[in-house]
Design a protein that fits this description.
- The chain contains 20 helices and 17 strands.
- The protein is α/β, with parallel strands linked by helices.
- The protein has 3 domains: 6-175, Rossmann fold (3-Layer(aba) Sandwich), CATH 3.40.50; 187-328, Rossmann fold, CATH 3.40.50; 354-508, Glycogen Phosphorylase B (Rossmann fold, 3-Layer(aba) Sandwich), CATH 3.40.50.
- It is globular and about 75 Å long.
- Bound molecules: zinc ion.
- The site of zinc ion (ZN) has 5 residues, from loops.
- Zinc ion (ZN) is lined by residues 87, 89, 95, 97-98.
């Protein structure tokens, strides 16, 4: 299975040195390592394309023919690209193709017979990153000396040069390859007990297992057992919370769990974790239960607890991290599977409503109620039907947020109903929490109010159209804080409500 189909490059400042409004083919100078990087990507079967803003045409500073002759020179120097997509419009033309709009990337993906979610977009400035996010492509920044410091700091992924870009892409592709296939027909236990969102991010890996296995049992926790039933490929769900994993640990009855896991009679188990969690206590339980083969990612020495001890780069997006583990255990994703997040859901028609989910699994990752209520008010004023969602425990919150005719659905959506509501929505507005991943799984765009306490590149919405809001350079950055450590919660409460309306407008048009 290939993780990506194509790598799309910005032209000026990325593939070639930036000479503003250059119409002279003789002045084209490739960036260092460009040819070798492209050749390495092409030799691995990846398509390459160029997505370039050329507003000089719209401004009358350079002709379309001149731009074309420069493009031909680029191909002479760097080899043939599978597609070229250029925006000729001036910035004030209001077109849908000029980056940071995603039009060029969407067109390129269609030309190449793929989807933006299976494309990497390499560029040197923030508008390349935004354009990629706005259609679900994976952005990779290769800054130049001209790139602003803040743009580099907020990019989800950054490498030094095009050699680094090729390394980055190929390392991710290699990470999901299997060296050896597991025997088919096994009964496999997949363990993931924390949030519903965390489990959704493991969905592609669970489908990979299901492709070769005869039976897949998911070992879930209290919070994600309903989600587990909606994942394609899952035959059975068992629930045992794990106190060394779960945010609110419950008592653990070691012998009882060992006995009931043993009674499942599985052939092997794969323990999914995030990088800050340890798989080893779970592996001990599985060993005690007599599970013959146990696989997990572990930086810590596992001794005899693991049969497959897997190591990964620690900046992989969570779904890729999980796919990598499944592959290491002998379960690569088949090429017939596109690797997107997915849930089992019958046909739901896309409507025009916006879902606002103000709560979150951690307070640091949610806006204050007053701020969220203002988002609802402005969205209503802009004419959107708005549904405010939350758990039963979040009813006081949703009641406070659902103002001006926004519908309060607090406590009235279980996981399956929320999936349907999101599948029919034009857009979801939420923090970094389970529903963002559920929206990704049903292909709904997300305005992500993303507190930078954890890395967007790992936990941001996966392969769905996203506008990311929130101060990514706030003092809470990378703290993993559950409660915001900064007075006034500036990373999220500083978001301008009109920015939210504009972001929704960008995603639904
Ligand atoms: Zn355009």
């Amino acid at each position: 299975m290939r993780l990506f189909d194509a790598v799309l490059f910005d032209r000026d400042g990325t593939l070639i040195e930036d000479r503003p409004y250059n119409g002279d083919p003789e002045a084209v100078l490739p960036m260092p390592g460009a040819k070798q990087a492209l050749d390495r990507l092409r030799s691995r079967g990846l398509k390459t394309g160029v997505v370039s803003n050329q507003s000089g045409i719209g401004r009358g500073l350079v002709s379309a023919e001149q731009v074309e002759s420069v493009n031909r020179r680029v191909e002479e120097l760097l080899g043939p690209f599978d597609c070229w997509h250029t925006c000729p419009h001036a910035p004030d033309a209001g077109c849908a193709c000029r980056k940071p709009n995603p039009g060029l990337i969407r067109r390129a993906a269609a030309t190449l017979g793929t989807t933006p979610g299976r494309c990497v977009v390499v560029g040197d400035i923030d508008s390349d990153v935004q354009a990629a996010l706005a259609c679900g492509a994976l952005p990779l920044m290769v800054p130049t000396e001209a790139t602003r410091v803040a743009e580099v700091a907020t990019a989800p992924a950054v490498v030094r040069d095009l050699t680094g870009a090729a390394d980055w892409v190929l390392a991710r592709m290699d990470a999901v390859q299997a060296e050896q296939l597991a025997p088919s027909g096994r009964h496999v236990l997949a363990v993931r007990t924390d949030g519903a969102g965390d489990l959704l991010l493991c969905g592609p890996a669970i489908r990979a297992i299901a492709h070769r296995a005869a039976r897949v049992t998911v070992w879930a926790g209290q919070q994600n057992r309903v989600a587990a039933r909606l994942l394609p490929g899952v035959d059975e769900v068992v629930t045992h919370p794990l106190p060394w994993i779960d945010a609110r640990p419950r008592p653990f009855h070691f012998e009882r769990v060992v006995e009931s896991v043993g009674a499942l009679g599985v052939d092997e188990a794969i323990v999914f974790t995030s990088y800050h969690q340890s798989a080893l206590p779970t592996a001990l339980v599985l060993r005690e239960a007599g599970v013959p083969r146990v696989s997990a990612i572990s930086a810590d020495y596992p001794g005899s607890l693991l049969d497959v001890r897997h190591r990964v780069p620690d900046d992989l997006p969570e779904p890729v991290r999980a796919l990598s583990l499944a592959a290491a255990a002998g379960y690569p994703l088949p090429s017939t599977d596109d690797g997107h997040l997915r849930v089992v859901l019958q046909g739901v028609e896309r409507g025009s409503h916006v879902v606002l989910h103000p709560g979150g699994s951690a307070p640091a990752r949610a806006c204050s109620p007053k701020v969220a209520a203002e988002f609802a008010r402005r969205l209503r004023r802009a004419g959107y039907p708005v549904y405010v969602t939350g758990s039963a425990a979040e009813r006081p919150l949703t009641a406070q947020v659902a103002v001006d005719g926004a519908v309060d659905l607090g406590g009235r959506t279980n996981f399956a109903r929320l999936a349907k509501l999101l599948a029919g929505a034009a857009c979801l507005v939420t923090g970094n929490t389970g529903p963002a991943h559920l929206a990704s799984a049903v292909g709904t765009p997300v305005v992500s109010l993303f507190a930078p306490t954890i890395a967007f590149g790992r936990w941001g919405p996966y392969r769905t159209a996203v506008v990311r809001l929130g101060d990514q350079l706030a003092a809470c950055r990378d703290t993993r804080a559950l409660q915001c450590p900064v007075p006034g919660h500036p990373c999220l409460d500083g978001i301008d409500p009109d920015e939210v309306v504009r972001a929704v407008g960008r995603l639904v048009r």
